[in-house]
């Protein structure tokens, strides 16, 4: 009886330089899997979009589109949010939303998403701002940091063209000839002295205080602590929207400032505006 283990192996009949080619067929399960994937590929090409064309692509018998599916899901989510918002956030008072353990998480999630889509481009994804764009995490607010004040600023904007827009003015004292260049530098030195940053000992703080009283105190107050009703910033703290370097303060007094924030009324619904106000207020600087 011949031992199968040591029997002569089957060959294909091909031989080269004394080396014979064995005939070792692939396992049937492997071949079956291979043929199944080929059939699957042809089926996919027929049923689904698969082949690129010069200016388009094959649509497939089913006409399926991942983009259309995503857009449908987004539309359904927006519709669900709109329904929920109209019945809850849109009709609830800001204070009620902030105090309601069910509404507050909804407002925060909605506000965070809206902030990322609409506000982060200027204020940053972390809402820490940059030169000319306020940091929303501190407690320094041009127009007030209460929930109602924040919501109103979002709604009407600043110098936005809205009928009720906020529109504080920082005149160009130097460019418009209200103050001479030396007076601009003197009052800038005094303004910086309010937060301990005076830069020119030779410039009289007394003269600067007199110039400030005549030209700036009407908006910023005699102590320079600002006025939210006019959008006038506090000049006695360490927060500077356009920079605290002497050249920056001089440039502000010389040429004025007219920052713009768009109005979101009409672009965002009432529920989203309220949610944004709740979210921004909750970043840590709300009052």
Per-chain topology:
Blueprint: E1 11-16, E2 19-22, H1 28-47, H2 66-87, H3 94-99, H4 103-118, H5 120-123, H6 147-156, H7 181-193, H8 205-215, H9 217-220, H10 246-255, H11 270-281
Antiparallel strand pairs: 1-2
Helix pairs in contact: 4-11, 6-11, 7-8, 7-10
Pathway: Energy metabolism; oxidative phosphorylation
Domain Cytochrome c: 106-195, 203-284
Subunit structure: Component of the cbb3-type cytochrome c oxidase at least composed of FixN, FixO, FixQ and FixP.
Question: Mind explaining what this structure looks like?
Answer:
With 287 residues, the chain is mostly helical. The chain has three domains: 11-64, no CATH class; 68-165 and 261-281, Cytochrome c-like domain (Cytochrome Bc1 Complex, Chain D, domain 2, Orthogonal Bundle); 181-255, Cytochrome c-like domain (Cytochrome Bc1 Complex, Chain D, domain 2), CATH 1.10.760. 45% of the residues lie in helices and 3% in strands. The chain has eleven helices and two strands, in the order ββααααααααααα. It has helices at 28-47, 66-87, 94-99, 103-118, 120-123, 147-156, 181-193, 205-215, 217-220, 246-255, 270-281, and strands spanning 11-16, 19-22. The protein has a two-stranded antiparallel ribbon. Strand 1 (11-16) and strand 2 (19-22) form a beta hairpin. Helix 4 crosses helix 11, helix 6 packs across helix 11 and helix 7 (181-193) crosses helix 10. It is elongated and about 115 Å long. The mean pLDDT is 91. Belongs to the CcoP / FixP family. Keywords: Cell inner membrane, Cell membrane, Electron transport, Heme, Hydrogen ion transport, Ion transport, Iron, Membrane, Metal-binding, Oxidoreductase, Repeat, Respiratory chain, Transmembrane, Transmembrane helix, Transport. It is found in: Cell inner membrane.
């Amino acid at each position: 009886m011949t031992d199968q283990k040591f029997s002569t192996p089957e060959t294909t009949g091909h031989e080269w330089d004394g080396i014979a080619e064995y005939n070792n067929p692939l396992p049937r399960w492997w071949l079956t899997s291979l043929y199944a994937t080929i059939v699957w590929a042809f089926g996919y090409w027929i049923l689904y979009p698969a082949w690129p064309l010069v200016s388009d692509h094959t649509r497939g018998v089913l006409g399926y589109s991942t983009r259309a599916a995503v857009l449908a899901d987004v539309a359904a989510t927006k519709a669900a949010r709109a329904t929920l918002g109209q019945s809850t956030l849109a009709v609830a008072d800001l204070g009620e939303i902030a105090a309601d353990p069910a509404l507050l998480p909804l407002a925060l999630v909605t506000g965070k998403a809206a902030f990322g889509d609409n506000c982060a481009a200027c204020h940053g994804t972390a809402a820490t701002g940059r030169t000319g764009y306020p940091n929303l995490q501190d407690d320094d607010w041009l127009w007030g940091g209460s929930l109602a004040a924040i919501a109103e600023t979002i709604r009407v904007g600043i110098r936005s063209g809205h009928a009720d827009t906020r529109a504080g003015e920082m005149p160009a004292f130097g460019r418009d000839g209200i103050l001479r260049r030396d007076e601009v530098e003197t009052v800038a030195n005094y303004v910086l002295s309010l937060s301990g940053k005076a830069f020119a000992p030779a410039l009289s703080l007394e003269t600067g205080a007199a110039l400030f009283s005549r030209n700036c105190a009407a908006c910023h107050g005699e102590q320079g602590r600002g006025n939210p009703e006019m959008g006038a910033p506090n000049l006695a703290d360490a927060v500077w929207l356009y920079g605290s370097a002497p050249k920056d303060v001089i440039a502000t007094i010389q040429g004025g400032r007219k920052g713009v924030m768009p109005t979101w009324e009409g672009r965002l619904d009432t529920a989203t505006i309220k949610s944004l106000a709740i979210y921004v207020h909750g970043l840590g600087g709300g009052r």
